[in-house]
Every structure is written in structure tokens, then in C-alpha cells.
Design goal:
- The structure holds two protein chains of two kinds.
- Chain A is an alpha/beta fold.
- Chain A has a domain at 5-100: NADH:ubiquinone oxidoreductase Nqo5 subunit (Beta Polymerase, domain 2, 2-Layer Sandwich), CATH 3.30.460.80.
- Helices cover 22% and strands 28% of the residues of chain A.
- Chain B has one domain: Cytochrome-c3 Hydrogenase, chain B.
- Chain B is 48% helix and 13% strand.
- In chain B, the strands form three sheets. Chain B has a three-stranded antiparallel β-sheet with strand order 1-2-3.
- Classes of the chains: A alpha/beta, B alpha+beta.
């Protein structure tokens, strides 16, 4: 039986989710309610956390989650805004194992901290690398490849 | 006496420079005698920062970089990126171009699986079995090089269509491919399927349950080998796949043997699809009308495509300029190998090599 995720989400968390006007499958969540809503979606049957990525919007960070129910093909893009000074968000590694590495990648390249992550360390770059390369203030300095310093 | 005798675990480095790690994968395994008790997969030796580089290139200039992700299936990677940009721009692609894209993507799947299977068999100790599939791959690469002049770094799919139309030389090689492919598949099944050594090395090794596979975000043949019937070409169709009935191959055990079997079945299915596509391909233009300077509107788009290794997702964010504001690739091999640390435990060293190879990983994609 196919679950109507959008309807039940709006029924239970009408004041906590903001659906995008252009894209039917996309909604915003506040950082405080994030874990609660993700746990709810997991219980409802969203079983494939396909991707986690992040965007440095200069004033704030955006973390973008792609969540699927493989049986019905239902899909959600979930976006969370984070403070630029101290970007922190709850880890999903206890709900979906796939979050473990995906979050480590975001932490490594964008410098977003995932709280309660079982093993939050750099994954593509080495420990001790200075800065987070995907941030917009990171200088892509070809002459100093061994770790350009952010200005 | 027995109180005094103790065993000790020892640490063994598998890779990063070792032929059976398919590139520069580094696994630090803790062994208790013959058996693995803990493991830690380390990646990043081939990290080139493609996502960061993309931010200083224009939209079309990013396409060649995607060839270097999973370098065994360049066209499929081109496709996922281009589809995401087209989604962002709202471009309507001509039908003929869509068919050509499907044909080349399926050819790519055959070529990629041929390497995947060949190297896998080689890691298990066979040499003949390793080079047979390369013959068929060669046929496919010959066809594709007639289209775009390259054998691995294609840069063939363009925003709005494809770079060149199917030509006479392509069809010349296609005829040969038509003859060889079914014969090869039959021959290869006879060679490998019932081989006693192959059975002993792969049956019941590296078992993954359906639930665990989904939880770890496995996709593609590795997911389907665990019995999860999920294929984007059928379940969230893109291009013209929705028009066709696609028989998704699945197996139930989720062990190394099944991962081989699923790939062979997929090759058969792709071969059938290619013939249908070539039969049905309409006449018409191969490029949509797109502006000379590509400037997508402000916003973002995410598109997933069923690649040979699994689902390649591409996230593109635009700030309205000629360069993408952010490009992110969800690489299937990266998500697939996160499960290694868990399934390695309890297996012997030789089995680790079998499991590693059965996933058909490409390090260019894992490290991006």
C-alpha cells in the first residue's frame, strides 16, 4: 500500500515543514525539528537516504538531503538552513547507515559538524588539512597545493 | 601450558598500491590468524576536487570532468550531469537525441560490466576468464569511438543533445557487435557459471541482506543482487525509458556469486534494449535550440541516473551566472563501499579480495 507522505507530513507537522512552491517534492525544515521529522519519515517507510550535500550560500549554509522510498518511488528533497558561524546539525547515522560516510564527506569538504556522529573525521582529505575547500572563502591556490589557507 | 599460550591479532594493510584493490583503495584490516576481526576503509588517494574545480568552469566545461569520475562509463556520467543542468534550464531535448543517449548509455553499461566481471574473475585467480570480456568491451569502444573519437574520455553528451549523430562506421561495428554479443554471453556462462573453484570462492561469501543493503545506500547491481527490485530506468524513468518494458534482474542471496550473476543478466537485458532502441529511433535533429552562452536561472536541480555501478545523482545549484555555483555528485561506488567495514568481519583474507572485487568499484568515482 502506497503511503501518501506529503499528506501525512502536513497533517502531523503542518507548522514545522515548509513546502517549496515550485517543486512539489521539496521542503524546508528548521534545524530544531529536523531529527524528529526525519525519524518520522524513516518510520513511515522512507528507506533509502541517497545523498547528502551542502551549499555555502555565504550568509548561511544549506544542507540538502535526498530521501527515497524505493518501493513506491516517492522522493523528497529536504533542506535545512544552518548558521554560517557555527554550522551544526544532528547526524542521521543512527537512522540510515548510508549517512555515516555522506556526512563525513560534507564535514570534510564544507566543515559542517554533525552532532552525535559515531566517527566524524575527514574522509577524502587528510587529518590536519587546513580549511574546508568547498567553502566560498577558500582560495583555490594552485601554487600552494599542500593546503591553501582560507582568508 | 594452555594458560601461557596466547594469540595476538595483527594489522595488515590491503593497498593502497595493490592490483586487487582496483586502484588506490586502502583497507587496514585487523587479523586474528586467518580471519578478519576489524577493518577500516580509507579513501581519498585519488581526490582531485572535481566539485571545487567545477565552480570555476562554465557549464559545458564541466562535462569532460565527469568522464573522469567513473572512467569506465564516461557517457553515463556525462548524461547524469547534463540531465541535471537541462532540468534546471527546462530544455526540451529532441527525441532522436534521447534515443542516442539511451543507446550509448546501454552500450556503456555493457562495456563497464565487462571490465567489472573480467577484473573480478582475475582477482579470483582466473586469467582466461579475465580477458574474454575485454574482447566484447573492445567492440563497444570501437563503436563509441566512431561517434566521438575517444575510447574512454568521451565528452559526448551535450547540454541540449549529443555531439554527433550515429554514422555509417558506427553501424558497421554494430553489425559485428550484434553477431558477437549473444555468442559471447553463452560462451562466458559455460566458462564461469558452473566452475567449481568459482563456486567455492563466491557462494555464501560477503552476504548482504536486502534491508541492510538499502540502509547502507547500496544501489545498482549490488543492491539488486540482495533481492531489492529497484531500477531507476523502470521506477523513476528518464529519457524515453518509460516507453519500454525493462526486465530488472534480481537475485536473492546477496553473495558474491549473485553479484556476478546480476551483472551478466543486465548485459543480456541491455543488449536486448539496444536492439529495440536502434529499431525505434526516429529521424530528426540531435540538438535542441540552446543559447550559445549557458546561463541557467537561479535555483537548483537534482537528477539521478541508473549508471552501471549504481545510481549517479547530480546536484547543480545556479546563481544565474555562466559558472555553476555548486556541483555535487552522488557517486554510486562511494556509497557502495561504506558497507565494507561491516561485511569483511569474519572472512578470510582471500575472501576479502573476492568481496572487494565483486562490488565492481572504481576509485576515480569514490574519490571524485
Amino acid at each position: 500500500m502506497a503511503t501518501n507522505y506529503k499528506e501525512s507530513l502536513l497533517k502531523h507537522y503542518a507548522d514545522k515543514v515548509t513546502f517549496s512552491e515550485e517543486k512539489a517534492e521539496e521542503f524546508w525544515v528548521e534545524k530544531e525539528n529536523f531529527l524528529e521529522i526525519m525519524s518520522y519519515l524513516k518510520r513511515m517507510g522512507m528507506d533509502l537516504l541517497s545523498d547528502i550535500t551542502s551549499v555555502d550560500a555565504k550568509e548561511y549554509f544549506e544542507v540538502v538531503y535526498q530521501l527515497f522510498d524505493h518501493a513506491s518511488g516517492e522522493h523528497f528533497t529536504i533542506k535545512v538552513k544552518l548558521d554560517h558561524e557555527k554550522p551544526e546539525i544532528e547526524s542521521l547515522a543512527n537512522l540510515w547507515c548510508s549517512a555515516n560516510w555522506l556526512e563525513r564527506e560534507v564535514y570534510d569538504l564544507m566543515g559542517i559538524t554533525f552532532l552525535n556522529h559515531p566517527n566524524l573525521e575527514r574522509i577524502l582529505l587528510w587529518e590536519g588539512f587546513d580549511g574546508y575547500p568547498l567553502r566560498k572563502d577558500f582560495v583555490n591556490d594552485h601554487h600552494n597545493r599542500m593546503g591553501a589557507k582560507p582568508q | 601450558m594452555s594458560d601461557a599460550v596466547k594469540t595476538q591479532t595483527y594489522t595488515l594493510n590491503l593497498g593502497p598500491q595493490h592490483p586487487s584493490t582496483h586502484g588506490v583503495l586502502h583497507v587496514v584490516v585487523e587479523m586474528d590468524g586467518e580471519y578478519c576481526v576489524a577493518s577500516k576503509t580509507k579513501i581519498g588517494y585519488l581526490h582531485r576536487g572535481i566539485e571545487k574545480l567545477a565552480e570555476s568552469r562554465t557549464y559545458p566545461q564541466v562535462i569532460p570532468y565527469t568522464d573522469r569520475l567513473d572512467y569506465l562509463s564516461g557517457i553515463s556520467n556525462n548524461l547524469a550531469y547534463v540531465l541535471a543542468v537541462e532540468k534546471l534550464m527546462g530544455v526540451e531535448v529532441p527525441e532522436r537525441a534521447q534515443y542516442i543517449r539511451m543507446i550509448t548509455a546501454e552500450l556503456m553499461r555493457i562495456a563497464s560490466h565487462m571490465v567489472g566481471i573480467g577484473i573480478y574473475i582475475m582477482d579470483l585467480g582466473a586469467v582466461t576468464g579475465a580477458f574474454y570480456p575485454f574482447q566484447l568491451r573492445e567492440r563497444v569502444l570501437e563503436m563509441l569511438s566512431q561517434l566521438c573519437g575517444a575510447r574512454m574520455t568521451f565528452n559526448y553528451i551535450r547540454i541540449g543533445g549529443v555531439a554527433a549523430d550515429l554514422n555509417e562506421d558506427f553501424f558497421k561495428h554494430y553489425e559485428a557487435f550484434l553477431k558477437e554479443c549473444p555468442a559471447f554471453i553463452k560462451q562466458y556462462h559455460t566458462l564461469v557459471d558452473d566452475n567449481e573453484i568459482f563456486h567455492a570462492r563466491t557462494k555464501g561469501i560477503g552476504k548482504i541482506t536486502a534491508e541492510k543493503a538499502l540502509n547502507y545506500g547500496l544501489t545498482g547491481p549490488n543492491l539488486r543482487a540482495s533481492g531489492v527490485d529497484y531500477d531507476l530506468r523502470r521506477d523513476r524513468p528518464y529519457l524515453q525509458y518509460g516507453k519500454y518494458q525493462i526486465n530488472v534482474a534480481t537475485t536473492e542471496h546477496g553473495d558474491c556469486y549473485d553479484r556476478y550473476m546480476v551483472r551478466m543478466k543486465e548485459v543480456e537485458e541491455s543488449f536486448r534494449l539496444i536492439q529495440q532502441f536502434i529499431q525505434d529511433i526516429p529521424e530528426g535533429p540531435i540538438m535542441a535550440k540552446v543559447p550559445k552562452v549557458i546561463k541557467p536561472p537561479v535555483g537548483d536541480a537534482y537528477h539521478e541516473a541508473e549508471n552501471p555501478k549504481g545510481i549517479l545523482g547530480c546536484y547543480v545549484a545556479s546563481d544565474g551566472s555562466t559558472n555553476p555555483y555548486r556541483v555535487h555528485f552522488r557517486r554510486p561506488s562511494f556509497s557502495n563501499i561504506a558497507i565494507y567495514d561491516e561485511i569483511f568481519i569474519g572472512h578470510k583474507m582471500a575472501d576479502l579480495v573476492a568481496i572487494l572485487a565483486s562490488f565492481d568499484i572504481v576509485l576515480g568515482e569514490i574519490d571524485a
